[in-house]
Amino acid sequence: MKRAIWTALSLLAGDAQADRSVPPTGFTARLTLFTAAAMALLAVFALSLSLAAGRLAARWSDELAQTSTLRISAPAEQMAAQTAAALEVLRTTPGIASARALTEEEEQALLTPWFGPDLPLDALPIPRLIEIEAEGRGYDATGLRARLQAEVPGAVLDDHTRWREPLVAAAGKLRGLGALAIVLIGASTAAMITLAAQSALSANAQVIRVLRLVGARDAYIARAFVRRFTLRALSGAAAGTVIGAILVALLPGGAEDGSSVLTGIGFSGADWLWLPLIPPLAAAVAFAATRGAARRMLERQS
Amino acid sequence: MIELRDVAYSYGGGELFSGLSLALAPGSFHFLTGPSGAGKTTLLKLCYGDLVPTSGEVALWGEPTTGMARDGLALNRRRIGVVHQDCQFLDHLPLGDNVALPLTVAGRHHEAAAYLPDLLAWVGLTRHVDRRPPELSGGERQRAALARAVIMSPEVIIADEPTGNIDWEMSQRLLALLVELNRMGKAVLIATHDLNLIRSAKAQVAVRTLRLKDRQLLAAGADL
């Protein structure tokens, strides 16, 4: 760790004379800057998508895992008794914070979008719904179903598992795709900078030859190239990150509850702390890519 | 310091020379002569590890160059000052930085201020210190190359036609510098066609002249 920090510090401090040994090459400088900036911009977008998907998955998982519904279908004369029995079962079930039967007005409100506001609830065999809120790590759904089957035969427990799990899984996959995109962006950056470094090394073959003839070690020659490409990647990525952050901040906001991935893209709170990591990571990728390219090239030219 | 034992070298199947042995001891002064294409430059490159022999062994301070690690070779080259035939400069750097390059790559650039002014004055290039090598004449480049070769006070100085592009007066000044360094215990090996240079050197110091001809290295002192 100490060695890595020392390497990074000495790289940033540099050696002005060593740097001057290698002539500046405009094409590779521009290519590295542009690549680092473009890749950092894409990384910002991928990161915001991944974080938004993560937030959505967490919200769905948390909120839906804490609520469930008990539906009681029974003849009208048994409805009140079965509802009371169900509430008693729920009251004595560990992991349930509260259980409440929906009022007729609430059931009316639920059905209004499908049947309109004039639905005569008292004339129809509408099941009674009980809203359950779990606490802590929740309740044992299998055990509760067994008790309800014995004591409230008309009760059906819906803990939302059927549709919650695919949604959470989809959001998780979206987050994974975002992370994969970031990895691919890093790999592409490494490939592009490797090509640029190889180009610079080839263009400076005569310089390398002269440096060797006067006693330069491989590390000295490589360092001049590595430092140059690392600093270019750092500055390019910093510019790309700033532009990306501004563009993401300017994206139109959506639903307040962030229930959609597309309208929830962006950074909130501590998420912004991820952004300053992008330029140093790009520099680290450039450092490794250039050092590898320099070592291979110096090996070939020996 | 530098020793060639039964060395052969081939270019693309054609043997340039073979069975060649040579030892550069501290304080020795060798001239290498021979017709163009005989392999003088190749022999010099073998001496500073720029080439490895096809067979036989070249040893720098006891260590064979064949299989020598690149960093080890670099450290050995700091002990050898080389004046290349084509000078070999970094064209984007001013002359002063080029002459100080061996100090720079050795991490001793701070010492340049102590040596560079006197050295440039000695080879008559003080007013060219900020000019780039392509702006210099052939003779000026060769003088700069000699200054670069000696700035580290190397143990061995190898020069390939160092007076090829300079006038008689300047060649005598350069020879005087080499003789002075030789008297300080440095080994000197110079490849040249300039017989007058060899005669001048003989008048000042004990010189051994070698002739590379017909793939063999022969002592040629008696002929001069």
- Relative helix content of chain B: 25-40%
Count the E strands of chain A: 4
Largest interface: A-B, 20 and 24 residues
Number of helical stretches of at least 4 residues of chain A: 11
Distance between the termini of chain B: 27 Å
Strand-residue fraction of chain B?
25-35%
Q: Which value, in Å, is the CA radius of gyration of chain B?
A: 17 Å
Task: Please describe the biggest sheet of chain A, giving its number of strands, its sense, and whether it closes into a barrel.
Answer: 4 strands, antiparallel
Strand order of the largest sheet of chain B: 6-7-8-3-9-10
Which structural class matches the secondary elements of chain B? alpha/beta
Largest sheet of chain B: 6 strands, mixed
Structural summary, described in words:
The complex is a heterodimer of chains A (302) and B (224). With 302 residues, chain A is an alpha+beta fold. Chain A folds into two domains: 16-61 and 172-301, no CATH class; 74-153, no CATH class. Helix content of chain A is 70%, strand content 8%. Chain A is built from eleven helices and four strands, in the order H-H-H-E-H-E-H-E-H-E-H-H-H-H-H. Chain A has helices spanning 2-13, 16-21, 26-65, 76-91, 104-115, 141-151, 161-203, 205-213, 218-250, 261-264, 278-301, and strands at residues 67-72, 96-101, 128-134, 155-158. In chain A, helix 7 (161-203) crosses helix 9 (218-250) and helix 7 packs across helix 11 (278-301). Chain A starts with a helix and ends with a helix. Chain B contains eight helices and ten strands. With 224 residues, chain B is an alpha/beta fold. Chain B is globular and about 45 Å long. In chain B, 46% of the residues are buried. The longest helix of chain B has 16 residues, at 168-183. Chain B has two domains: 1-79 and 156-167 and 174-224, Rossmann fold (3-Layer(aba) Sandwich); 90-153, no CATH class. Chain A binds chain B through residues 17-18, 20-21, 23, 207, 209-220, 298, 302, and chain B through 48, 50, 70-71, 74-75, 77-78, 82, 84, 88-90, 92-93, 97, 101-102, 104-106, 109, 148, 152.
